[in-house]
Amino acid sequence: MIQWDExxxxxxxxxxxxxxxxxxxDSATEAxxxxxxxxxxxxxxxxxxxxxxxxxxxxxxGVQARASMLxxxxxxxxxLGQSLxxxxxxxxxxxxxxxxxxxxxxxxxxxxATAALADTHSFVSEAANSRxxxxxxxxxxxxxxxxxxxHQITGKVAPALLxxxxxxxxxxxxxxxxxxxxxxxxxxxxxxxxxxNIVQGDAEVGEALVTHPDVQMVSFTGSTPVGRKVAALAAGxxxxxxxELGGKSAAVVLPGADLGKAVKATVASCFLNSGQTCxxxxxxxxxxxxxxxxxxxxxxxxxxxxxxxxxxxxxxxxPLLSALQRExxxxxxxxxxxxxxxxxxxGPDAAVPGQGYFVAPTIYGDVSPTSRLATEExxxxxxxxxxxxxxxxxxxxxxxxxxxxxxxxWAAEDGxxxxxxxxxxxxxxxxxxxxxxxxxxxxxxxxxxxxxxGGVYGLEEFLEPRAVQFPG
Length: 472
Ligand code: NAD
Hints:
six-stranded mixed beta sheet; 14 helices; 2 domains; 41% helix; binds nicotinamide-adenine-dinucleotide; aldehyde dehydrogenase (NAD(+)); single chain; Ald_DH_CS_GLU; EC 1.2.1.3; alpha/beta; Ald_DH/histidinol_DH
């Protein structure tokens, strides 16, 4: 049994003393792996004090010295990364092969790419008689979810540190391995005391952090309902916010597009990490004429997906994080059955392994655009197919939810796809299967959030412009 019972405050590990714990289960076996110990408001106070004390020196050492530290953290994470991939895989259910690449290697690359911005990003510019300097926001509260734990921590902590901010991280209490590993990496890298503090906890600790008067910015990734609450609390002190929230992203398949490729990529996106991905494509919008062929291709693609133990080489789809997540997803499936949608694959009664929090990869066709399945984030392996008669209708359907995180467009020509992409209210639109670009801004329109992560855009979230005017 592992006890995740340490905070990392002011450069040292210290015992969590709150007395409250949360059990962590192996998502594939349901066995208890250990307990996360939850902190309290007094731990938050100590962490904020440490971050405040560390701020002047961290700003003074300059961006190149801060970048060197980021590289050292990346090196340390790399040396610890092998076991982390397995730990995250057990926690969230992602197949191990993918976990190494996506959950560990990719965020380490982001630490390095963020550090490299020190060489290319200009922090000073001129406009008429003004010199504008981009200055660090100050003490940052970073609150992260469980689905890509190291990735989401990295998307906040690395740019905030490079900018010259100091940070209190409150990672998800449901996926503790990544932040435990980061504590060791900070020690190995010799990060100055107080620059990054990690406080274990749940909503109680999160709220203490968000409302602390010495926190200047809240960078939050998580669900839209919690994000709304956090944003409202932060507004009390007019704190700067960055909100990376939920999604209900759509692929628009135009007439003449390569249906085979569109189906393959949509299935891969929707079922990655068992659907526990904020930017997953969870709606596929196809012309009524293409629907029968699309249906056939979808059933075939899902038929090939191997579901099972995330540790096995051949597994493509693992379990969900927890019994609660499985219950939430099953409720959506029961609802879809009652609505009478065309079940193409899976369903609430489909066969799954006897142990573990599995839900079969599920697809419903001809889904009503106003239904729960078409408008709400499921956060499980469930794809909804919607049909259109005109391209205008397809665009309206794609834009027909309150979210706007990601989208995809498929067409015979990239130019035609781009015309439709430019009509979509989504922060990221992939054309004809284009690959993910970590330097592009990542974030959402509408209820998917405020602000961006990734590359220069992610760095600028942690900087405030100060304009100094010269006479004459
Ligand atoms: P969640 O909203 O339940 O929790 C996120 C974090 O907020 C956790 O650390 C949690 O402890 C903390 N928290 C909960 N209540 C709080 C409160 N009242 N005050 C302060 N902090 C509080 O989300 P989750 O279940 O961990 O993650 C899944 C959600 O995250 C999905 O909706 C997904 O779409 C979203 N997400 C978005 C992105 C993105 O980049 N847009 C990325 C990953 C996940």
